[in-house]
Design brief:
The protein is mostly helical and 134 residues long. The longest helix is centred in the last third of the chain and has 23 residues. Helices cover 34% and strands 0% of the residues.
Length: 134
């Protein structure tokens, strides 16, 4: 399974490796997915509805004039501490290299070496084969 640009959230999170997207039932289809009517997080995504985003539409938070804002810094701190993942680095990579290169990198980075399924950023093991990873 690989992911597409619809699975890149405005905040730089790869929705394709989120536990809410990878679960078997009532799964989220990604923050930007048109089919995300049941997902708990995409429909209520605070990034898509922030006041700066409403003033001037932009796809990714790095396009915002106040990037990185306090909300972004808080998300960054939480993801770096808990999951060793920098959403700001993701956004900078997208800005410098484009969505296609980011998707290519993420598909390789998050592929289980044992079974080939997508890994989950929120777990330290493959949800499919239970192989641990770092």
């Amino acid at each position: 399974m690989s992911f597409s640009k619809e699975l890149i959230a405005p905040c730089g999170i790869n929705c394709g490796v989120c536990i809410e997207h990878l679960k078997e039932t009532d799964r989220c289809h990604g923050c930007l997915s048109a089919g995300n009517l049941k997902g708990r997080y995409g429909v209520k995504c605070g990034w898509k509805s922030c006041s700066e985003h409403k003033k001037a539409y932009f796809k990714y938070c790095y396009e915002c004039p106040i990037f990185p804002c306090a909300k972004m810094k808080s998300l960054e701190k939480r993801y770096v501490e808990k999951y060793k993942l920098s959403v700001i680095d993701n956004l900078n990579y997208i800005k410098q290299n484009g969505e296609y290169e980011f998707i290519k990198r993420e598909n390789e980075r998050w592929k289980c070496k044992n079974c080939g399924k997508m890994l989950c950023v929120h777990r330290n093991y493959c949800l499919k084969c239970k192989t641990e990873y770092k």
